[in-house]
Amino acid sequence: MLLQQEIVRVFERRYGEPPAFIVRAPGRINLIGEHTDYNDGFVLPMAIDRAVWIALRPRADRRVVVHSLDFDEPCNFSLDDLRKGNDGWSEYVKGVAWALMAAGHRLAGWEGVTTGDVPIGSGLSSSAAMELATARAFVAVSGLPWDPARMALIGQRAENGWVGVNCGIMDQLISAAGQADHALLIDCRSLASQAVPLPAGYRFLVLDSAAPRTLAGSAYNQRRAECESAVRGLQAAYPDISALRDVTPAMLAAEADRLDPVDLKRARHVVTENDRVLRSVEALRGEQAAALGELMAASHASLRDDYQVSSAELDALVAIAQQTPGVIGARMTGAGFGGCAVAMVEENAAAAAAEAITARYRAQTGRPGRAYVCTASQGAEVWRAQPSESN
Predict the structure, then answer these.
(1) How far lies 139's CA from each of 15, 103, 106, 229, in Å?
(2) One of 37, 40, 171, 208 is an active-site residue; which one?
(3) Are residues 45 and 157 in the same domain?
(4) What is the mean pLDDT of residues 2-25?
(5) Are both 138 and 229 inside the same structural domain?
(6) Contacts of 265 (CB under 8 A, 6+ apart)
(7) Which of 9, 105, 217, 244 has the highest CB neighbour number within 10 Å of its CB?
């Protein structure tokens, strides 16, 4: 809880008193189920023990003033005069305010400081963590009820409608509703979720390729459009389908010749990935680690070849991980185009595997890759702050 202590100390130095509230919202890794969320499919993420923190107190007016320790810059705006600015972290704060007010909520102003240890731009959903931490802050000062699924939708609307990234619901929902020591099977159509216990004796490595990626205005939105195009192509034969969630492998095979070749590849990934998610849940519940490892490898191959969202760095990182003693399975995680991979590893081999993978990756690519040993954490939280021991 070092970041919690640090943010309280900084708040007290800035404002001369302890904060009224501290909020925390985690980043995530997705064990399997990539690019299925915006296709109404299934995903299996877990919240991680890296998060965005905000220490805050309410204001008497309707202004929001929050300083980012990570960027060393302020976000300052009136809830009565929301305007888009330049791309940056503050747009996520404004976007959540906009989405909450659009949903009919009366908001109070607040001020505070924020920091986090979710690596930015690495595919671990630092943006969703900021959105859900901001939502928790507004809920705390405005006396609103906290409903994880509804607040996840608020975060998604902020990212879609304000920031301009046409993301699905997974990142926001796992940040809102994650459970310690569990992954979360999410049905992205109904938003129903089931906690899936993670097996004892294993840890998960987040392997950062240190290859930068951007999502807004990138190939992410193009992939979503290609999936929608595939659905339209399939509706001629199957008028009742509304998303790739409704398509079986047999249906896709029967209409393959009628689809654009690129649309077919995108659809094939989504259809097979949904099946891999459900089989992975069975593997976890049956403590069949080897089966999960095989499914992770198949997922990465599909993302590389059919969905084409991997990269040379991610492919190298996954290949190195798969050859490392103690690693059960590895795949890219997140939207891709750079970012991170995830590996399941035997607990007693986790530290050595992280060091070995990073060393080989650096030697092979020249990039300063990093590895983090992660545990599954609780979703977004709030509590009343206690004074720090020193100012």
Answers:
(1) 21, 13, 10, 38
(2) 171
(3) yes
(4) 95
(5) no
(6) 305, 306, 307, 308
(7) 244
At which residue do the structure tokens 């859900």 appear?
A: 132
36-95 confidence digits (pLDDT tens): 999 999 999 999 999 999 999 999 999 999 999 999 999 999 999 999 988 789 999 999
Helices within 16-147 (DSSP H only): 90-102, 126-142
- Residue 45 is encoded by which pair of tokens? 């993420």
More confident of the two residues 391 and 83:
83
Confidence of residue 387 (pLDDT cuts 50, 70, 90): low
Q: Tokens for 318? A: 């996954």
Instruction: Give the per-residue pLDDT at 247.
Output: 98
Give the percent of the chain with pLDDT over 90: 85
To the query of whether residue 171 is one of the catalytic residues in this protein, the response is: yes
Share of the chain above pLDDT 70, in %: 96
What tokens appear for 246 in the block? 């409704």
Supply 117's token pair: 């240890």
Question: Is residue 164 located within the same domain as residue 258?
Answer: no
Tell me the backbone φ, ψ of residue 16, rounded to 5 degrees: 80, 10
Query: Residue 366 in contact with residue 349, Cβ under 8 Å?
Result: no
The residue with tokens 């990756």 is 361
Residues 6+ apart with CB under 8 A from 308: 265
Examine the pLDDT at 154 and tell me if it is beyond 70.
yes
Domain range enclosing 77 = 2-197+377-384
CATH number at residue 9: 3.30.230.10
Domain count, the chain: 2
Residue 127 sits in the same domain as residue 276: no
**Helix, strand, coil percentages for the chain (3-state, nearest 5):** 45, 25, 35
Average pLDDT over residues 247-251: 96
Query: Quick check: helix, strand or coil at residue 140?
Result: helix
Looking at the structure, tell me whether residues 41 and 174 fall in a common domain.
yes
CATH of the domain at 210: 3.30.70.890
